Amino acid sequence: MSDAETLFEKIIAREIPAEIVHETENTLAFRDIQPQARVHVLVVPKKRYRNLAEFAAADPHGLAEVVATAAKVAELEGITTSGYRVVFNTEGDAGQTVFHVHAHVLGGEQLGHFGTAR
């Protein structure tokens, strides 16, 4: 992994502004600047891991906290009863563009299918 700071590390350090939705000691949730749904919030661990596989292997409790934070975000956004999606993209072919693991919390409207149509 590159030593260069990621965009998310700069947001965590408050060097770049973001609309923060929720924060815990180990996670930060903020609105995506290019939302793909009415509600689109990113949940990141404050400690950097490249992707989901690396995170799960190194810190399963941290991964559980990210998932719990995603559930809290859904509650705060009022989408728990209508439904929401939590997505982790891993590596470029899956759409990961910032290589600091993060969950996308999507909802607030009818969501379509995901992946390539076959």
TrEMBL record:
Q: According to the UniProt entry, where does the motif Histidine triad motif sit in this chain?
A: 100-104
TM region positions: none
Q: Which residues form the HIT domain?
A: 7-116
- UniProt xrefs under Pfam families: HIT
The signal peptide here is none
**SUPFAM superfamilies cross-referenced by the UniProt entry:** HIT-like
Q: Can you name this protein?
A: Histidine triad (HIT) family protein
Q: Give the species this sequence originates from.
A: Amycolatopsis magusensis
